[in-house]
Write a structure and sequence with these properties.
Number of strands: 0
Helix content: 55-70%
Mean pLDDT: 79
Radius of gyration: 38 Å
Shape: elongated
Order of helices and strands: HH
Strand content: under 5%
């Protein structure tokens, strides 16, 4: 009786160990499959984006800038093409921001 109980306990422990090992292997395989699927999705996105790149319409931009230049709004300064207004009351004045 004692021998059969020991054999049953060892067999049970062995089957638990085997089941645990198999479950870990299955989880590992699932994680690896999910990673491969995500990598494949990212690669497909990269290929799609590479194939469908957007490019600027340089001719339209050039035409728009040239038209704006004829209207006097093509200045590169923040104040525009006319510059900042100069009034005698503002020159030499100290403010909290200007020191």
């Amino acid at each position: 009786m004692a021998i059969s109980a020991t054999v049953a306990a060892v067999a049970g422990a062995t089957s638990l160990y085997s089941a645990n090992k198999q479950a870990k292997a299955q989880k590992r395989a699932q994680r690896q499959a999910a990673k491969q699927a995500e990598d494949a999705r990212r690669q497909a996105d990269r290929e799609f984006n590479r194939a469908n790149q957007k490019s600027p319409n340089v001719a339209a931009l050039f035409k728009k800038n040239k038209a704006a230049g004829g209207q006097g709004v093509s200045g590169t300064y923040l104040t525009g093409a006319g510059g900042a207004p100069v009034s005698p009351g503002m020159i030499g004045r100290t403010t909290l921001l200007g020191g």
